[in-house]
Amino acid sequence: MFNLLLKPETKTAYKIFNQIYPFMNPFELHIPTKLYFGKEKSDNFFDQLSEYGSNVLLVTGGGSVKRLGYFDEVLNQLKSRSFNVTHFEGIEPNPLSQTINKAVKIGKENDADFVLALGGGSVMDASKAIAGLIHENESDIWPFVLGEPKYRKMKGALPVATIPTTAATASEVTAHAVISNKDVKGKAPISYPFLKPSASWLNPAFHTSLPLTTTRDGASDIISHAIENYLLGGNDSPLADRYSEGVMETVIQTLPLIEEDPESEELRGQLMWASTLALNGMQVAGREGAPFTLHNLEHSLSGYNHDLAHGRGLATLYPAYLRFLWENDRVLERMALLGDRLFGIEHDDIKEASMAFIQTFEAWLDDNGLYQRLSDVGVPNEAFAQVADYAIATYGGGKELSAAGPIPKSQIIEIFEKTEQQHAGSKLENSVIA
Length: 434
Ligand code: NZQ
Ligand code: ZN
What we know:
alpha/beta, Dehydroquinate synthase-like, alpha domain, Rossmann fold, 2 domains, six-stranded parallel sheet, two-stranded antiparallel ribbon, disordered C terminus, binds 5,6-dihydroxy-NADP, binds zinc ion
């Protein structure tokens, strides 16, 4: 006799799944990126790059990879394989369209065959945009972003390879690049299957240098990629639920351990892999499509304040957004299920169970230096209406946003205002938030 040690379903989970498992929704999934995990995979990754040509445009950010020695390591690998390397340095966090355009000019002048990103999500996103513009022989990325005239008009891109130095965006596998433009206080994506990187090297050794604040911001972003559709995408894919819970649980458990031991490659590797898995498409497979509402709100905020890190903006929105959903009786069952699965919260009453989830998650944010008001991160009350207008114009088809129901401008402002009830957490003293 086998003795199966299955965790018994709790009351909350039972209430939600006391039905026959539903049919999954149809989906397409294409995950083309060759992934190399671990510092031992360096040679394999650099050998693979020869498939994409011999002229490489190597793109980096504001200088940290040089300071930390990662740049030299990568350059040596490229030189030892006789690649012709052109280096573009200076992609800023929340990459600006104007900087991307400069890199495109240099890439064209040097006949780049492919683009190699060494940096965080900003460098990876910029590299995708550069690869697209060079392929199209265009010179300005902004007209191609969501809401602008050339949106969805790109036909192809040079191959992109990435070496992520943050655990956050999953840009190393996604089809997206998010572009900022200070001139219009805007931030919006381009998104094409051909922007998915051809190869990515996930080297945890390049993450041990990440400052605590950037690590926390990244953790917040990873959770958001799993939680958005988890809450709004319905009950149709129990496996997508378990998968997403696994990603979120890994982040929730690993971040506090990294705070104790920031240079642990083992822990950095766990967080990094959670990051890659959180937005590769598996996390939503079989669920209903649903809007990326937290992201739409956050991109509008960091469009307004270019210094606001994406993950920090998301962290600031979580409590207010979840409480807004709760007060409007939206997706209470999904919150209750997540509370059960992540935190073991059991309640007969779904309203109480979902509030207990919100409170427990808020406590985790607070414990991990991720709990603050919008006014703490450089978005003052006077800006709320302007940001709401941008969110609706860019992400809401000019009408409204939605999350299991409409979110008109007045309610976007209500969510922003609600963040003002969040106190600045005790662990924020060394943060570099704006
Ligand atoms: O500029 P450098 O010198 O490289 O310094 C960076 C930057 O200041 C620093 N950093 C990166 N790796 C480091 C390091 N410092 C020390 N050690 C390391 N190993 O960290 C700072 C932040 O970097 P950034 O790339 O901006 O952060 P992140 O990875 O969070 O990327 C954020 C951008 O990605 C977009 C965001 O909107 C934002 O623009 N996203 C992209 C997505 C996608 N492509 O699919 C999805 C996401 O939801 C997100 O929207
Ligand atoms: Zn994100």
